[in-house]
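Title: Comparing notes on inverse folding

I've been comparing how different people in this forum approach sequence design from structure. To keep things fair, I'm posting one structure and asking everyone to reply with a full sequence. Here's the target:
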C-alpha cells in the first residue's frame, strides 16, 4: 500500500530525477545538491533525419530508453532503488506523449518504493540548474531564462517564488534560432549550428532588435526578427544574389541576445540584487555566455552560469528543482497527469 503518512523529510535526501519532455530520455541522482549520477539517452540523431522532433518517434524512443537510463544512473551512483528518498519528474511543459512515458515510470518507481513523487515544471528545472553549478547559491537573484519554448527575465525571490519581470510576447529565443537555422540551410538542432556559423561572420547587418521599443521596455519579440531574416534571404534570392550566411548568423545572434543581456543586468541593478543566474538551452550559446559575463563584471554582479550540459534538457536540473519542492513538502498525488503547457 502506498502510504506517506509517516514519511519524514530528510535534510539531505537522495533524489532521482527523470526528464522526458522532448527528445532526451534522462535520469540523474543527487544527494543534496551533489550529483551522484547523470545519464542521457538521446534520440536527437534520429529526429535530425526529419529536420526536427517528431512527437511519435520521441515517445517511442522514451519508452525504449527509460528503464535503461534509470538502471544506468542507479549503477553509476552505486545505490539501489530502495535507497532513493524521492523521485522528481517533469510533468510539463513538453510533448504530451513523451511526458507521459517519464511520468508513468516515475509513478511506478515511487509506488514500488513507497517514496514521494515530485512533479516538476520543466521551466523551473532550467531555472534550478544554477544550483548545480554553485551548491551554496541562495536567492534572491535575477534569472535569465532562454530556451526553445520560453524567454523571460525573473526575480527569483526564494526557492519557490519567482516574479516574471519581462518576457517574449510571441516566439521564444530558442525557437528563433531553430527557424533561422532552417533559413540558412543548417541541420537540426539549429541553435548550436547557428552559433558555429556565426563564429566566422561579422554582425554587420542591421536586423531589428528583439526588444520591443514601446510599452514597459521589458517585452521581447522574436517573430519580427525571424521575419526580417526570412525577407532578407528571400529578397537576395529574388535578385539572384548569394547571402553571406555567417554574417546573417552573427547579426541575428547579436539582435537576439544583446537585449536580453542588457535588460537582465538592468533588472539586477533596479531590484538591488547582487547575483544573476541563467538557464535554458540558449544559455549554452557562447556569445550569450561571454556577453553576460562581461556585462555582469562591468556592473559588479556575481554571475552563476550552469555548465553547458545543464543548460540543455537534462534530469539533474529536474532533481535540483525537486529538492526545493521536497524540502517544502510539495508532493504530487498519484493521479497527477502530464500537461503539454503549464504556467511558469
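Reply #1:
Here's my take.
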Amino acid at each position: 500500500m502506498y502510504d506517506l503518512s509517516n514519511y519524514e523529510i530528510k535534510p539531505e535526501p537522495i533524489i532521482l530525477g527523470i526528464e522526458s519532455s522532448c527528445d532526451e530520455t534522462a535520469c540523474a541522482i543527487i544527494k543534496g545538491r551533489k550529483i551522484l549520477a547523470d545519464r542521457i539517452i538521446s534520440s536527437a540523431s534520429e529526429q535530425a533525419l526529419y529536420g526536427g522532433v517528431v512527437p511519435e518517434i520521441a515517445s517511442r524512443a522514451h519508452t525504449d530508453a527509460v528503464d535503461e537510463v534509470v538502471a544506468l544512473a542507479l549503477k553509476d551512483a552505486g545505490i539501489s532503488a530502495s535507497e532513493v528518498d524521492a523521485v522528481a519528474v517533469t510533468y510539463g511543459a513538453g510533448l504530451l506523449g513523451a511526458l507521459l512515458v517519464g511520468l508513468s515510470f516515475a509513478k511506478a518507481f515511487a509506488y514500488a518504493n513507497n517514496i514521494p513523487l515530485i512533479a516538476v515544471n520543466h521551466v523551473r528545472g532550467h531555472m534550478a540548474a544554477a544550483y548545480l553549478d554553485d551548491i551554496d547559491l541562495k536567492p534572491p537573484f535575477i534569472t535569465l531564462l532562454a530556451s526553445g519554448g520560453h524567454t523571460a527575465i525573473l526575480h527569483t525571490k526564494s526557492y519557490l517564488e519567482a516574479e516574471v519581470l519581462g518576457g517574449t510576447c510571441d516566439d521564444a529565443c530558442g525557437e528563433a534560432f531553430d527557424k533561422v537555422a532552417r533559413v540558412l540551410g543548417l541541420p537540426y538542432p539549429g541553435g548550436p549550428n547557428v552559433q558555429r556559423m556565426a563564429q566566422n561572420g561579422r554582425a554587420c547587418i542591421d536586423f531589428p532588435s528583439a526588444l520591443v521599443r514601446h510599452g514597459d521596455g521589458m517585452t521581447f519579440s522574436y517573430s519580427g526578427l525571424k521575419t526580417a531574416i526570412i525577407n532578407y534571404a528571400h529578397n537576395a534570392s529574388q535578385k539572384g544574389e548569394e547571402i553571406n550566411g555567417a554574417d546573417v548568423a552573427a547579426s541575428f545572434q547579436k539582435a537576439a541576445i544583446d537585449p536580453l543581456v542588457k535588460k537582465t543586468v538592468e533588472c539586477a541593478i533596479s531590484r538591488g540584487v547582487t547575483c544573476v543566474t541563467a538557464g535554458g538551452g540558449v544559455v549554452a550559446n557562447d556569445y550569450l555566455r561571454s556577453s553576460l559575463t562581461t556585462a555582469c563584471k562591468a556592473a559588479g554582479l556575481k554571475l552563476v552560469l550552469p555548465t553547458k550540459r545543464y543548460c540543455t534538457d537534462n534530469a539533474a536540473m529536474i532533481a535540483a528543482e525537486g529538492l526545493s519542492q521536497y524540502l517544502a513538502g510539495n508532493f504530487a498525488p498519484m493521479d497527477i497527469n502530464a500537461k503539454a503547457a503549464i504556467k511558469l
